[in-house]
Amino acid sequence: MLSSSGVLRHSSLPVCLALFAACGGARPQYAAKAAPSDSYGYSGGGAAAYDPPAPSTYQPAHAAESQSSIAQQPVPDRPGLGTTYGEQVYAPISFAPFVRATSSAWAEVLLHYNDADGVNAHAEYLGTRPQPLEIYAGDGSLAVALVDEAGRTLPGLQANGRTLIVGADGERYKIIVRNATTARFEIVASVDGLDVIDGKPADPNRRGYIVDPHDVLVIDGFRTSDANVAAFRFGKVTDSYAARTSGDRNVGVVGLAIFSERGAVWTPGELQMRDTANPFPSRGYATPPR
What we know:
By secondary structure, this protein is mostly beta strands. The chain has one domain (15-24, 36-49, 77-274). The chain is built from 2 helices and 17 strands.
């Protein structure tokens, strides 16, 4: 069970979006650089150890055959998009304490992405079309979207319990989380099944980024140091960071586990419960014991 810890405070300038009401408050002050511990993590992001390894060519276990065996036929490329390990981007962080209210996530968000052909085919089948899309988490207190390098919200659609986002090969994207409350939240994010802090298989029990009250969190890429990230760029599945490190099984999905902070959280849902509290709930009669 988590007791107390700290998380990353992302200190890059917030991205202003046309669909977002505001870009948050002043740029946060940076704490002195220090090694993460059980009590402190990243004010704006995640795990104690980052600097993900540079991608290399991933070779599945079945490919390790003796030299005398017959050469295998090359595996066909998977269609659609993955996320590559892009160029270095300056995105400094600092550390701040954050105590989770519970060990369970307050809300979870899944964003499936693909190229235009794949998403448009799905949209046509459903009789709709992609449009700029942001997703509301929990009771609607937080909004999540993928945006391009200029800050424009990427198009997408929701169908059959899935959220599909349209990307383009070579296009850089960012994950945006907008907080419309007076409370702080911790965001543990993954791309293609990999933690955005250390590039390892993702786990919501790891530490994440803090999004401050009435602020916007921008996650630019896989973190490589306290000051830099490797930008998120759409690319072929075979070129994705996941395929070149741990395998491409989970390529095509962005995940966020959102944790509330210990103490009162005045979200719209909580305020609605207060506003509609009934002083005289209906009374019934005694029932037999079980």
